[in-house]
Specification:
The protein has 301 residues and is an alpha/beta fold. It contains 15 helices and five strands.
C-alpha cells in the first residue's frame, strides 16, 4: 500500500498488504490527543485489545466509546468491528511460527547483525522490570519452595528453557521433574499430579496441543499452574493461575527474558534455603569429581 493511498481512502481489511500499525504510524502526527492515547495503548497492548468490546477498550484507555469509534474512522476503517478485526489479523500474523526469525532474515537493512541482536535483547531487559513483575516473581518463588513436586514442561523450541530450569533447580532441590514427549509416557508421569504440586509451562506460538492438554489436566487435579508465554490471549495464559508474558525481542527469536527470569528464580530459591542449597551444591560437586564426569587432561601439571 502506497503512503498516499492511506490518507483519504478507506482501507481494505482483506488486502494482503493491510498492516494496522503501519497505517496508524502514518497518521499518528495528525491524530488528536485522545486518539494518540488510543494509538499508544494499542501499540503496547494489542494482543489483549483484540478481544475487548468497545466499552472495555474505552475503559482501559480512559476515553469514551465514541472516541474509540472516531479513532477507527480516522485511520480509514468503518467502525470498531473493523478495528477489532484488524488487531486480530495482526495477532494472527505474529503467531506464525518463527515470525521474528523470518523477519530478521528477510530484513534488508545494512547493519551489524551482532550489534542489532545485542541491542534488541538489551531493550528486552530494560523493559522487563516492573512492580507487578516483582510481586509475581515472589509468588513464583514461594510456590516452588512450597510444592511437593515441581513439573516443568516446554516442548519444541521451548524445551531448551524447560530443560535449563529443571537442570538448575535440580542442583538445589530434589523434587523436580522434566516432562518430555520423546519417551511416550509424558501423560503417565503427570497423572498423579495434585493440589500440592506445581506445573510450570513454557509455551510460545504456535502452541503445542500436548502442552495445553497437560495444563488442563493439571488444573482439573487442582495443581498450581505457572505459565510463561508470549500473549495474555495465549491458551496457556488463559489456563494458568500465574502468568509471565515473556515476549521475544521485536526482531529475534530470543529467550533472553525467560532465561533471565529463570536465573533469578533459581538464585531466589537458593537464597531462601541458603544452608541446604550450599550443602547440596558442594555434595554434587564432590560426587561429579569422584565419578570422573569432568574432563581432566592428565598430561597437564
Amino acid at each position: 500500500m502506497r503512503k498516499h493511498d492511506i490518507i483519504n481512502e478507506k482501507v481494505d481489511l482483506n488486502g494482503e498488504d493491510y498492516m494496522i500499525f503501519e497505517i496508524i504510524k502514518e497518521r499518528y502526527s495528525n491524530l488528536s490527543k485522545s486518539h494518540k492515547k488510543i494509538a499508544d495503548y494499542l501499540f503496547d497492548n494489542f494482543s489483549e485489545a483484540a478481544f475487548f468490546s468497545i466499552n472495555e477498550l474505552a475503559n482501559k484507555v480512559g476515553v469514551s466509546p465514541s472516541s474509540i469509534f472516531r479513532f477507527s474512522c480516522e485511520i480509514g476503517l468503518e467502525g470498531y468491528p473493523d478495528l477489532q478485526k484488524a488487531l486480530q489479523i495482526k495477532l494472527q500474523s505474529d503467531l506464525k511460527p518463527m515470525s521474528q526469525l523470518t523477519y530478521s532474515i528477510s530484513n534488508s537493512k545494512a547493519e551489524s547483525v551482532l550489534k542489532g541482536t545485542i541491542e534488541d535483547n538489551l531493550h528486552v531487559l530494560h523493559e522487563m522490570y516492573s512492580c507487578n513483575l516483582e510481586e509475581d516473581f515472589e509468588v513464583f518463588t514461594d510456590r516452588i519452595l512450597k510444592a511437593k513436586k515441581i513439573f516443568i514442561l516446554g516442548l519444541r523450541s521451548s524445551f531448551c528453557a524447560a530443560y535449563y530450569l529443571n537442570f538448575m533447580l535440580a542442583q538445589i532441590l530434589d523434587n523436580t521433574t522434566l516432562l518430555e514427549l520423546g519417551t511416550g509416557d509424558i501423560f503417565d508421569r503427570v497423572k498423579l499430579i495434585s493440589e500440592e504440586d506445581v506445573l510450570v509451562t513454557i509455551s510460545y506460538a504456535p502452541y503445542t496441543k500436548e502442552t495445553v492438554e497437560i495444563l488442563e489436566y493439571a488444573k482439573e487435579r487442582n495443581a498450581y499452574t505457572i505459565g510463561i508465554t508470549d500473549f495474555f490471549s495465549s491458551p496457556t495464559a488463559l489456563r494458568s493461575e500465574l502468568t509471565f508474558i515473556a515476549k521475544h525481542s521485536s526482531s529475534t527469536y530470543s529467550f533472553t527474558y525467560v532465561f533471565t527470569l529463570f536465573n533469578a528464580i533459581i538464585i531466589s530459591v537458593g537464597k531462601r534455603q541458603r544452608s541446604e542449597s550450599l550443602q547440596k551444591l558442594e555434595k554434587n560437586r564432590i560426587n561429579l569429581i569422584e565419578k570422573g564426569v569432568y574432563y581432566k587432561d592428565i598430561d597437564k601439571k
